[in-house]
Amino acid sequence: MAKVYNWQIGREMDYPYEEARPAKQFAMVMDTNKCIACQTCTVACKTTWTPGRGQEYMFWNNVETKPYGYYPLGWDVNILSRHGVQDLTHFPYQGKTLFDAAPQGERVMGYLPADLDYAHPNVGEDDSLGNMTQGAFLNMPHMQWMYYLPRICNHCTYPACLAACPRQSIYKRKEDGIVLLDQHRCRGYRECVKGCPYKKSFFNPITRVSEKCIGCYPAVENNRQTQCTITCIGKIRLQGFITTPDKAREDNPLDYLVHIAKIAKPLYPQFGLEPNVYYIPPVHVPPQYLYQMFGWGVEEAIATYRKAADDKKLLGTLLLFGATPEITHHYKIAGDTVFAYDEKGAEIVRVPLKEPIHVRKAYDETREVYRTNIT
Predict the structure, then answer these.
(1) Among positive and negative, which fits the CA dihedral 148, 198, 143, 32?
(2) d(Cα 5, Cα 18) in Å, to the nearest integer?
(3) I want to staple 127 with a disulfide (CB 3.0 to 4.6 A). Which of 26, 68, 90, 216 is the partner?
């Protein structure tokens, strides 16, 4: 095992291959407070990439309701129970990663889901934790709660699927960090399915090889965001590129949200994969649950997020979500407007920090008509 540095856990860790970070790293931020589980992202991904035979059960993008929703069934409960209780109270993280916890003779600790585990993609949808007694009213955080968690492949810096594959058929692109699978090399051993803790590698029973999210790389190569991002009705996603904390740029929206404002957190950082999909935690969920899922600093992230209306920089960054189908490489706040630019410095969109409001009189004297909502 080589020694690599994982900034999300603040220390070096074991990994089967030497550290080799890409020129720039594909990344995404999702705001869980805005997701309505409409599944538009899921349908967009499904119709674009997995409509064929053997792909019927595959959802490279899915939205599950936490705490009782999972796809495949119980994916995080299964891996967390195998991982065991880890101490998340201190940073740097001193517990075991999935590579540290790997059984003798294996590179990463994992499990292979049963076929029927994929048969319930909407299990637990809208099921809440807790009860509301008669006369009770909600406080913050809520005593009865649930929230929606959209998921894609995390295109990890240290992918477990890549580490587990004995054929080296999975690779990480040097130009953008997207993790891809070479189906010509794959022999269908399903070690990637077993190794990925997020269960975002899938086996096709017709072609007898594995498949996974490709980060919509044809779009990314043409400076367009992924299908799941540009079709999102709730404007909860922002896709771009991220750097390490020591190279963070304040004019890069993903760097700003993750490294500077620190309101976006990785999913299960204790696994040690350094995932590159980040989540703004839900404001109404008890912190104890969020610590386990998003790691350190969730309460601080929520406190900062709740003050966004008074912070022009943060508000402007959040308004870039869903503002353009193109990838924002640089941005700035000027007056009451946020401006976004592509890699060459050309302006791609501008968004006002406050939407203009036009109040029209109920009676239009010019047309001598009343404006009335009759629906």
Answers:
(1) negative
(2) 10
(3) 68
175 and 24 Cβ atoms separated by less than 8 Å = yes
**d(Cα 223, Cα 39) in Å, to the nearest integer?**
24
pLDDT in tens, 74-133: 999 999 999 999 988 899 999 999 999 999 999 999 999 999 999 999 999 999 998 778
DSSP state letter for 60: S
Residues pairing with 204 in the sheet: 209
DSSP β-ladder status, 11-15 and 2-6: antiparallel
Which runs of E-coded beta strand occur in the chain?
A: 2-6, 11-15, 25-31, 62-66, 147-151, 170-172, 179-181, 201-204, 209-212, 237-242, 265-266, 277-280, 330-334, 337-341, 347-352, 363-364, 369-370
How far apart (Å, rounded) are the C-alpha atoms in residues 292 and 88? 7
Low-confidence ranges of the chain (pLDDT < 50): 375
- The amino acid sitting at 35 is C
In the block, tokens 């990994």 appear at 15
pLDDT of residue 74: 96
Tokens of 138: 């909600």
Q: Is there a contact between 272 and 100 (Cβ–Cβ < 8 Å)? A: yes
Confirm if 298 and 287 have CB atoms less than 8 A apart: yes
pTM: 0.94
Report yes or no: 48 and 59 within 8 Å, Cβ to Cβ: no
Identify whether the C-beta of residue 278 lies closer than 8 Å to the C-beta of residue 258. Answer: yes
CA dihedral 33, 36, 37, 42 (to 10 degrees): -90
Q: Which two tokens stand for residue 164?
A: 């587990």
Q: Which two tokens stand for residue 349?
A: 């969109």
Residue 269, preceding peptide bond in cis (omega within 30° of 0)? no
Please, which residues bridge with residue 338 across strands?
Answer: 333, 351
DSSP 23: S
**Residues 6+ positions from 222 with CB-CB distance below 8 Å:** none
The candidate with the shortest Cα–Cα distance to 157, out of 172, 143, 142, 138, is: 172
Angle at 369 between CA 363 and CA 375, to 5 degrees: 90
Question: Domains (ranges, CATH) in the chain?
Answer: 11-130+141-239 (3.30.70.20)
CA distance 325 to 269: 29
> Measured between alpha carbons, how far is residue 87 from residues 84, 289, 358 in Å?
10, 14, 54
